[in-house]
Write a structure and sequence with these properties.
584 residues, alpha/beta, ABC transporter transmembrane region fold, Rossmann fold, 2 domains, binds adenosine-5'-triphosphate, nucleotide-binding, ATP-binding
């Protein structure tokens, strides 16, 4: 019954699905494990000959046979065990590796909205710790298999000696099975809780360390430690709860089995001494087999408990695979051919979720190739949401965005996105060299192209000032490089990609005048000849834009160039006066 339920479990099924890919190796491992288990039950047979033939009948020849048998079988068992362990480790590790890469691939194809809803630390916990649990299921299955085989061989010996005595000895088995059933559910539930809390703890750690400068700036170290400790204690409690449940099972099982062995020893002695229907060798062989049976049963229970605890953790990995990936294209796939001729928004509407108010409402705009569109508006007016719709980070809820007259949902996502360059407000650099960060924009860029892009982005001079030049490691999260320098590397990365559509989110944080001038100049070069959507914060960008789109509550309120909008004397004029009054 337990086995039936196990097979219905998703993690186990997934593990088996992956296992089938390695069936030859799997069959070899299982056969080796059968051999090792069979040989470990052999003493139950040999002991009969040792007692009846060697000790009672004083047959010395038999002593040699028994001892040789014992030595040879132990060596064989050792060899078989070694190969079983190595092969099962290989299968398990291979499956773990395959599952992890599949989960990572899936993560790469999940929409941005998934990452907004789920904490990064929790995703990482699922990919590392929980994926390992899924892999460990393999070890447990092999172990359980080994124990089951040993148990079967020993049961054969028991029934061979005396069937009635065997049935008496096995009466305790239903009680043991019942015990397992009762605790299985409890252990699984406690395991899931522990795993969820562990995920929370990792997420908190990741968040706390990523924002360490904010923690320090607010002198919030004590608070961070306190929060960490609260979660740490919660994990400790959950872990202890699950360990306590597990710890109960083995002693109860041991008491039951000892009672059973005592009963057998009593009745067996009666058969040997009073009834004379059994040889002493058979009784000792029987008791040996029964004693040897304890270990596989105990291990089966232990492994089952571990399995129950691990399954929820493994399920957490599979939950990632449940999340819907981005849709490559809707309807018939359209090819992206030729240059971008136009971008058109037709009655575009977007809701983050069904219940919320639309973040973009009935947005209509026609953009000619090479035009620069500056989006302005108060915080929360929907500028970021709108630009996120262009690379299909989010899909429009209603209406269409057309590029070259075709709904962008019909283009193959990867092909379409290759035409779009993005320079976000906060620059993200990957750990690696400056050169590799610039080359990230286009695969197989040559060093000349990297240098050229760096020069255009006004990054060349500062890069060459570093001792290792383009080979300078930017450090994790680009820690060694200043804000303005990072921005220029990001601009070089976009330039090397040479996209036709550019999305810029201008940084609001002020740079020093010189750095600001260099960044602005690099941005101007980046925008040149490209259809650009810019969430504008700099006055010069706004004034030079072909179209300024003034947004409020997701809607276009005003549209036109700088002078036209000033003349209108509406929202833009007010915004301009409040934000740029002094500069202007
Ligand atoms: N991931 C999200 N889930 C739900 N609502 C969101 C999400 N992101 C933004 N919103 C909501 O959508 C609306 C528009 O936000 P958006 O970030 O697009 O504005 P914005 O003009 O770019 O603001 P800012 O200038 O401050 O960046 C806001 O009401 C915001 O609360």
């Amino acid at each position: 019954m337990i086995k039936g339920r196990l097979l219905k479990n998703r993690s186990l099924n997934t593990f088996l699905k992956y296992s089938i890919r390695h069936k030859t190796l799997l069959i070899t491992t299982v056969l080796l494990s059968f051999l090792a288990s069979g040989l470990s039950a052999l003493p139950a047979w040999l002991i009969k000959y040792l007692v009846d033939d060697v000790l009672i009948s004083k047959n010395v020849k038999m002593l040699v046979i028994v001892i040789s048998g014992l030595i040879v079988s132990t060596i064989l068992k050792g060899v078989a065990s070694y190969f079983t362990d190595v092969k099962s480790a290989f299968v398990t590790e291979t499956i773990k590796r395959e599952i992890k890469i599949d989960v990572f691939k899936h993560l790469q194809n999940l929409p941005i909205s998934y990452y907004k809803k789920n904490k990064l630390g929790d995703i990482m916990a699922r990919l590392s710790g929980d994926a390992s649990s899924l892999g460990k299921i393999g070890f447990l299955i092999f172990d359980v298999l080994k124990e089951v085989t040993t148990a079967i061989v020993l049961l054969v010996r028991l029934f061979q000696v005396n069937w009635l005595l065997s049935i008496i000895s096995l009466t305790a088995l239903p009680a043991v099975m019942n015990l397992i059933k009762k605790y299985t559910k409890k252990i699984r539930k406690a395991g899931r809780k522990r795993q969820d809390i562990a995920g929370e703890l990792i997420a908190y750690t990741q968040e706390g360390l990523s924002g360490i400068n904010i923690v320090k700036a607010f002198s919030a170290e004590e608070k961070a430690i306190k929060n960490y400790n609260t979660l740490n204690m919660k994990e400790f409690d959950a872990s202890m709860r699950s360990k306590k449940i597990r710890a109960k099972v083995s002693p109860i099982n041991e008491v039951i089995t000892t009672l059973m062995v005592s009963l057998v020893a009593g009745y067996g002695c009666y058969l040997v001494v009073v009834k004379n229907t059994m040889s002493p060798g058979d009784l000792i062989s029987f008791v040996t087999a029964l004693g040897l049976l304890q270990s596989p049963i105990k291990n089966m229970i232990k492994r089952n408990n571990e399995l129950q605890e691990m399954l929820p953790s493994a399920d957490r990995v599979l939950e990632i695979l449940d999340a819907d990936t981005e849709i490559d294209h809707h309807g018939i796939k359209e090819e992206m051919s030729g240059n971008i001729s136009e971008v058109k928004f037709e009655h575009v509407k977007f809701y983050y979720d069904d219940k919320s108010e639309a973040a973009v409402k009935d947005f209509n705009l026609f953009v000619k190739p090479g035009e620069v569109v500056a989006l302005v508006g108060k915080s929360g007016s929907g500028k970021t949401t709108l630009v996120n719709l262009i690379p299909r980070f989010y899909e429009t809820s209603e209406g269409t965005i057309k590029v070259n007259g075709i709904d962008i949902k019909n283009y193959s996502l990867k092909e379409y996105r290759k035409n779009i360059g993005i320079v976000p407000q906060e620059t993200f650099l990957f750990s690696g060299t400056i050169a590799s960060n610039i080359a990230y924009g286009r695969e197989k860029s040559t060093m000349e192209e990297i240098v050229e892009a760096a020069k255009m982005a006004n990054a060349y001079d500062f890069i060459m000032e570093f001792e290792k030049g383009f080979d300078t490691e930017v450090g994790e999260r680009g820690a060694m490089i200043s804000g303005g320098q990072k921005q220029r590397i990001a601009i070089a990365r976009a330039l090397i990609q040479d996209p036709e559509i550019m999305i810029l989110d201008e940084a609001t944080s002020a740079l020093d005048t010189e750095s600001e001038r260099l960044v602005q100049d690099a941005l101007d070069k980046l925008m040149e000849g490209r259809t650009t959507f810019v969430i504008a914060h700099r006055l010069s960008t706004i004034i030079n834009a072909d179209k300024i789109v003034v947004m409020e509550k997701g809607e276009i309120k005003e549209i036109g160039c700088h002078n036209e909008l000033l003349e209108q004397g509406g929202i833009y004029k007010k915004l301009y006066e409040t934000q740029f009054g002094e500069t202007a």
